[in-house]
Amino acid sequence: MDSLAAPQDRLVEQLLSPRTQAQRRLKDIDKQYVSFATLPNQVHRKSVKKGFDFTLMVAGESGLGKSTLVHSLFLTDLYKDRKLLSAEERISQTVEILKHTVDIEEKGVKLKLTIVDTPGFGDAVNNTECWKPITDYVDQQFEQYFRDESGLNRKNIQDNRVHCCLYFISPFGHGLRPVDVGFMKALHEKVNIVPLIAKADCLVPSEIRKLKERIREEIDKFGIHVYQFPECDSDEDEDFKQQDRELKESAPFAVIGSNTVVEAKGQRVRGRLYPWGIVEVENQAHCDFVKLRNMLIRTHMHDLKDVTCDVHYENYRAHIRQM
Amino acid sequence: MDSLAAPQDRLVEQLLSPRTQAQRRLKDIDKQYVSFATLPNQVHRKSVKKGFDFTLMVAGESGLGKSTLVHSLFLTDLYKDRKLLSAEERISQTVEILKHTVDIEEKGVKLKLTIVDTPGFGDAVNNTECWKPITDYVDQQFEQYFRDESGLNRKNIQDNRVHCCLYFISPFGHGLRPVDVGFMKALHEKVNIVPLIAKADCLVPSEIRKLKERIREEIDKFGIHVYQFPECDSDEDEDFKQQDRELKESAPFAVIGSNTVVEAKGQRVRGRLYPWGIVEVENQAHCDFVKLRNMLIRTHMHDLKDVTCDVHYENYRAHIRQM
């Protein structure tokens, strides 16, 4: 099992994308060559200095543990001051967009993490077009970036484009609900959607297997394009390939979050203490939390940004030009 | 813990309402009196011969375990042939009313149990007035009964009035959702609503405590009238009074259902087998299932019918007369 401080310890190593890492391995043999082999190191130093940014959106109906999962992923409480709305307030509430930004630093590598939250989504009695404020938000970020990119002072463009959207599916839904289909179809051409089965500690393993299968089938049937993990390079080692296969087979990840540390078998772990046992968030036999964290932070953060930039943003530009 | 066959074993003893039972205790001292002390026995014999009926409605959004709970309560699979709808079918689906009737017999006492199910409730993107088909159904049963009661052949009136509605609240809701408030306010003057926290095996004890409190507060604040357990007779024994107090304090019951029998500590119990432990449906440290079953079958079935007859149906009649 991974230790509690794990995600931040790994950031340095992993934020730099697999390619940069591979290039760093060259270091040891640098001395035998002229000097251009140090170019990756220069890129590395520069990117460390500049810092990284990443914008993650979380969506799904209230109560599916969105904020708890974000907390568990980044070990940062973005929602300290959050007040839960009463049913009364929620009746009149519309979907809002909330942005929280935190600067995380580990071993000198800085990550500016922005979480875009969408409270109120799917909570109303009538949820027709409740994803409209969200698609509008995504479009506005593209628009802003497009304006900045076309302007003069291009050096310090603030990239607020949404790089990934974790979409929380209820574990009780017997598959996708109409509101899930509506949301994903409205967003799938604009943002990398990573669907998650939320609060998976209420499903026994066979139920998780069945639900995953059903969701995969329905995503297929409705022509929804969720984020596709890129093909694994053929020259990667067998271990990495195996991990990659497991990652792809586990989608949609069934996750459990927790902000409390409990004692299980003498070890202190993030978990949930039920009268019948302890759910360990980072135990791979209990859920796919570690897989999601690895994917998001260690292995695919760069690719998520690349796809946002090269596919979704380019689509937006093509669309603008047609108008 | 209660054995698996428990609910049916108890029906004979308990279906006859607390009053009839008390009167049966008179049996032993019958011989000292004239003869009218046997009247209760005559009533008893007659009612056994005639059989009992009970109509239970279950409502709440899909996936909250309504059919599983009904199965667990009556150990009768009413839904053998049920086919789950796909997201596609559910998009076009409206709320329907389905009626299942089973005849259960134990120790010669017959119970005709009717379950009224409301698939599709709350599943649409737009759930405005989604409780309308349900209120209409309840009204139609009153209307039918009223017509039969005013007619000539009153001996064999079929009573299809809904005696109790188990309303399933999502455990993830941070309290009541707007659709819950809408449903309960539309139905509370027509039927005995017993709110339940569904699938409580995804909440740790402190979360259950908080959610119960919040639901009680909100029910109060919105002026929703759920079924009130009657005052305990002052001449009941201390044990019974204690049980009654616990029953009232536990509302809304947090329940877990299961149709699978698993092995826990060498015993075969109804439960759910998680990688981190076994949830036992009938273990009172795990959930309030036994409390609900006792209330519904052993202690309050008669009162639920009385309140339906004396309060809800009389309200309906008063309402009709005004028109």
> Pair with the most extensive interface?
A-B, 51 and 51 residues
Q: What would the CATH topology of chain A be?
A: Rossmann fold
Q: Report helical residue fraction of chain A.
A: 40-55%
Q: How do the strands of the widest beta sheet of chain A line up side by side?
A: 2-3-1-4-5-6
- Estimate nothing, just give the exact number of structural domains of chain A: 1
Total DSSP E strands of chain A:
9
In terms of quaternary structure, what is this?
Answer: homodimer
Rg on CA atoms of chain A, Å = 21 Å
* Separation, N- and C-terminal Cα atoms of chain A: 53 Å
Helix vs. strand class of chain A: alpha/beta
CATH superfamily assignment of chain A? P-loop containing nucleotide triphosphate hydrolases
Low-confidence stretches of chain A: 1-6, 26-31
Please tally the helical runs of chain A, counting DSSP H or I stretches of 4 or more residues. Answer: 11
* Binned strand content of chain A: 15-25%
Return the string of H and E elements of chain A: HHHEHHEEHEHEHHEEEEHH
Q: Main sheet of chain A?
A: 6 strands, mixed
Average pLDDT of chain A, rounded to a whole number, is: 82
